[in-house]
Each structure stands twice: as structure tokens, then as C-alpha cells.
Amino acid sequence: MTETTTLEGLLTFIKVTRGFDFTGYKRSSLERRIDKRMSDIGIGSYDEYVDHLELHPEEFAHLFNTILINVTGFFRDEQTWEYLSTEVLPELLQRRPTDSPLRVWCAGVASGEEAYTVAMVLVGVLGEEAFRDRVKIYATDADEEALDQARAASYAPKAVEGLPTGALDEFFERVDQRYVFRKDLRRSVIFGRNDLVQDAPISRIDFLVCRNTLMYFNAETQERILRRFHFALDPDGVLLLGKSEMLLSHSNLFTPIDLKRRVFRKVGRPTLRDRVQVMAHDMSASPESADFALRTSAFDLSPTAQLVIDRDGLLVLANDSARRLFGLGANDLRRPLSDLEISYRPVELRTHLDRLWKDGRGTELEAVHWLSPTSQDRHLGVRIVPLASNGEVTGASVAYVDVSERRILETQLVATRRELDDAHEVLQSTVEELETTNEELQSTNEELETTNEELQSTNEELETMNEELQSTNEELETMNDDLRERTVELNDVNAFLETILTSMGISVAVLDKRLHVQIWNAHSRELWGVTPEEAEGHHILELDIGLPVDALKAPLKACLSGASEREDLVLDAVNRRGKPFQCGIVCLPLNGPDAISGLIVMMEERPES
Fold it and tell me: Could you give the CA distance from residue 293 to residue 279 in angstroms, rounded to a whole number?
């Protein structure tokens, strides 16, 4: 930038670097708001401010907040909203089928109060269930920061002071000193960024609210925006403006329902072609003008069949070639393309059109086969291209070129080439077969050599594995011999120990340090009726025998701890036959190499004294 930067230069810099186009705003308002922001940060010229923006990109957000004055509130001009809910909206709903969706566009919503006001009014008119089923409110603004606040739907107590009686309790929930709009109703409100000057309008709108936004734009930009609003609204759609905005110079677009409250109805265009003209900034041209007639004649007399479809999927135009080729009549114009056979025959147009609306790129299809109404085989080349206005895709052109004759010639050419190729293949067949046979023989020989090497390698591996298995088998036999010898020794020891315990003639139980039974001799089984299998491995105090085992707890602990070398006691008991007797019990510690490793408990029947 030079030292002679002007306001226009600053606006151009903002448009190039950030994509915001403020050239359509009123110059006096823009200059006043920008000067205020420059004064706040102590900058006196546009040159310095441009340098500041380049060095401090975060300054753009502060500048946009200053220019885009977000002044809004709930139920501003309450009488207007009451008039809408009692007069305008009920009449609008009567014109629509009872189950049809209701689409609302709130443009320039700032922090969202106006969009939620519309939602509350429509709930009052329709009821909550019908509102959730039928209503979609598209709330847009150019300020992303304000949209983030609107999406949160959370407001301070001061912001909700203007709500009508009962609305706060009906539509809001108290969360941490703030009021949040009900989530079930909030789902019907969709927020998104939309620049009224640059972005495409939302279509098929029944009710459009844009209050105190147009007043910031100059007359030319206002006219452009109003044309977009006219295109967006359905026939008989309603437009609500702010108190400071009038449409006296745009009676060809909107007619007042109530001028005082700034409520207007869309003026319907005679044909859909005229509606597209409005969107294409061609309001000054009459449909009967010479230029229009020339364009129409040229389009109609084109030898190529052509269709024009608008963004809403309606068939806008069809030239004479297309009407004759596909049997279209005047009544088919302005109908949804999906209702016509041409939408899927000879080619499925809807899929390609959906892709075109999405990414703005056309499609070319070659030689699509089609059986004409006269049962003739035809091949058509189909070219689908976008139609744009001011950088926006507003429709699509579909051209059909009859390539049937070219297709026949191509087929004949392909057949001739195929015959030549066949002759050439016959000439080369013998050579190729010989070469193939030689290659196969060579390949077979290489495979046999490879297989022989693999077999030899496998044989060596098997011999190695056999030696390893033989060595392992010898080791296992040695281990088995050792185990057999130790098993015999262990059996001898167990037999010797069992003989000793049986020869003692009394009941003997050997316990480990946890008082679990390790040995339970035959006299114990005879005395108590408990087999060794039932006793061994169990805690002695848990055994179900005719002995008050709780009385053994203290003596057993005394011997196990080393406090006593022998414990003698006599307890009343009952033997396995149910006969009571006095049982003499002796508890001895089982001394190991380093410490007591268990206990020996001897039990015998003593004669009564």
C-alpha cells in the first residue's frame, strides 16, 4: 500500500485478504465505524491501519465486530410479532397443505434472539409437536463470532427481560445464572454463515425475516439483495423488514401486507423464466424485448436438443429439438424434473445434477443407448454444464447430441479393425505357440531342478530332525528310568510309614503348618468314620467328626508356635457308631531341619475312670 490509501483501497484490501466484501455498504456508515475503530487503537490514517492489519491479523475480528453492529433482542416491536401470530402466519399456513414443511429464513440474526423469537411465535401458532415435525428455521449472519453465541442459545438475565409473560418458563431452562433455549425446540433452528451480498440465497422459503439489515447497504446492493430474497421466497411468501426499511421503489418484487409493520408479500412472476431473470439481475429487460426474443429464437432453433433446469430441480426451458425428441409439451415446463421421464431416460440425470449442485462441475457422457418412442435404437451424447450468475450456480443446461450414425460408423470401423487384427493374429500364432512351448519346456526344466533341490534340502532336514528325535528319546528313557526308581523308593517309604502308623494301634493325623491334614491313618478312619480321601487336604478344625475340634485350637497353636513340646488333653467324643467315649489326645510338634514344619496328633479311646 502507498501513503495515498483511501477507504476504497482499505475495503479492497479486506476483500482480497479475508473475503469480506463491504463495498456495498453505505459509505458514510462504513467510514464512521472504521474511523471509530482506528481511533480506539490510536491510528490516524488508512495506510497505518493497513500495516496494522498485516502485522496483527487478530485485528480483523475487532474491525468486523465494529462494522457489523449486532443490535438485536427478543420480540423487538412486540406489536409486529402479535400481528404476525394472529393474522399473517395463520393465513400463510392455510395456503399450505397441513403436512407440508414450513421453511423460514432469518437473515442477519446476530446473536440469535430474532431466530428464537420466530420459533416461539410458530410454536404458539402450530403447537410444539407440529413445530418439531414441520418447521425448519435457517438463521444466517456474516459474523462467525455472533453465530457462535447464537448456536449456544444461552442468554444473560438482562437479555430475556423483554420476553412476554410466561415465555421464559415455557421456552427456557435456567443453567448457571443464564437462560438456555429448550434443546428439543432448538433442533429446528439451523445456524450458518451467509453473506447476503456474495452467497447464494436459501431457496423455497415461506417466511423471510431480515430486520434492520438492509439499511446498512447502499441502494444498488439493497436492490441486489431484494432480488435474491424474491428468488428465495415461494409464491405468496412473506417478507418481514425492520422499522427503518421500506420497499416503495420495489413494488415489482413485493407488495405490502401492512406497510406500517413492514410486512410484505412476494409478487409472483408470470413464468419461471421471469423468476430466473430476476435472479440474473435482468429486471430492466422485458420478456418481449428484441434481445430476449433473439436469445429465445436462437435457443429454440438450435439443432441440438437442450434442456435448462433451475437449482430447485424444475424444468425451466426445453427447445424445439428437445420437445420433439422426447415428446415434451408446454405443460411439462415449470414441473419438477423428477416427475418427468426425461429425468431417468435415456440417462439418470438426477445423480449428475446432485453432483453438479455440490461441486459446480459438469459431466459429459458418450454414446448413451436409448430406445426412442418410435422403437429406434439411438445413441446420444449427453453434456451437463452448470449455468452461473455472479459466480453462483443457478441452474444447469443439458444438451443431447444424436451420435447414432457416428456410432454405426465406429462400430463398422471396429469390426474391420478386428478382422485385420484376427488375420495378423493368425500369422503370428504359430511363432507365438512355438515360443510359448519352448518357454514352457524351459520353465518345466527349471521347476524340476528347483523341486530336486528342495527335496534334497528337505531330506537333509528330516535326517537332522530324526537324529534330534533319537537323542531326545534317549534322554526321555533315562528320565523315565530315574522316575521309576524314585517311584519305587517312594512307594516303599509310604508303605513303611503306613506300617508304622498302623502298628501304633491308635488314630494318628499329621498336619502341616496351616493345620491341613497330610496323613490320616486307618485307625483314624475306623474311629471317626472319615476316609483319608475325605480328610487329607482339609483343615482339621473343619472336619465333621465326633470330636469338639474347637477345643483343639489352643493346644495346636501352642505346639505349632513352639510354646509347648507336648499337649495332653481328654475330651468327650462320639465315635463313628454314635457311641460316646472319652478321647485322649496328644499333640506333638513335627520338627524340621530349621523349624517346626507341622504337628502330629494322636487320638485314642480311654477307659472311663
Answer: 19
Q: How many CA atoms lie within 13 A of 382 on its CB side?
A: 24
106 and 246 together in one domain: yes
* Total number of domains in the chain: 5
Do 75 and 163 contact (CB within 8 A), yes or no? yes
In a domain, 72, yes or no: no
SS3 123: helix
Instruction: Tell me which of 108-112, 298-302, 318-322, 505-509 is least confident.
Output: 298-302
Cell, residue 559: 505346639
Q: Write out the three cell numbers for 461.
A: 532336514
pTM: 0.44
> Residues near 361 by Cβ (< 8 Å), separated by ≥ 6?
355, 386
Does residue 476 share a domain with residue 558? no
* Residue pLDDT, tens place only, 297-325: 677 677 888 999 988 888 888 888 888 88
Element (H, E) at 520: strand 517-520
Contact 549, 541 (CB under 8 A): yes
Q: Confirm whether 486 is domain-assigned.
A: yes
Residues 313 and 327 in one domain: yes
Q: Based on the fold, state whether residues 413 and 395 are members of the same structural domain.
A: no
Asked, for residue 157, whether it belongs to a domain, the answer is yes
Percent of the chain with pLDDT over 70: 88
Answer whether 560's CB lies under 8 Å from 513's CB: yes
Residues 6+ apart with CB under 8 A from 480: none
Q: Which helix (H) or strand (E) holds 207?
A: strand 205-210
474's enclosing H/E stretch is: helix 404-503
Residue-range definition of the domain harbouring residue 29? 7-67
* Average pLDDT of the segment spanning 554-566: 89
Last residue of a domain, one of 359, 378, 402: 402
Q: Is residue 2 part of a domain?
A: no
User: Cα(240)–Cα(84) distance, rounded to whole angstroms?
Assistant: 9
The answer on 211 and 109 residing in a single domain is yes
In this prediction, residue 177 has a pLDDT band, given cuts at 50, 70 and 90, of confident
Helix or strand (DSSP H, E) at 223: helix 219-232
Half-sphere exposure of 393 (CA within 13 A, CB side): 19
pLDDT in tens, 349-386: 888 888 888 888 888 888 788 887 767 788 888 999 98
Dump strand ranges (E) for 360-438. 363-371, 377-389, 392-402
- Of 296, 314, 309, nearest to 235 by C-alpha is 314
Q: Which residue matches cell numbers 533319537?
A: 470
Residues 55 and 164 grouped into a single domain: no
Provide the pLDDT for residue 391.
Answer: 66
Q: How many CA atoms lie within 13 A of 515 on its CB side?
A: 18
Q: What are the angstrom distances between the C-alpha of 279 and each of 47, 336, 416, 526, 567?
A: 38, 19, 54, 112, 113
Candidate ranges 105-119, 287-301, 414-428; pick with highest mean pLDDT: 105-119
CA angle centred on 114, ends 99 and 66, rounded to 5°: 145
pLDDT score, position 279: 52
Q: What is the CATH number of the domain that holds 365?
A: 3.30.450.20
Measured in whole angstroms, how far is the alpha carbon of residue 324 from the centre of its chain?
A: 47
Instruction: Write out the E strands in 37-167.
Output: 102-107, 135-141, 154-155
Identify which of 93, 22, 88, 124 has the alpha carbon closest to the alpha carbon of residue 265.
Answer: 88
Cell of 228: 435474491
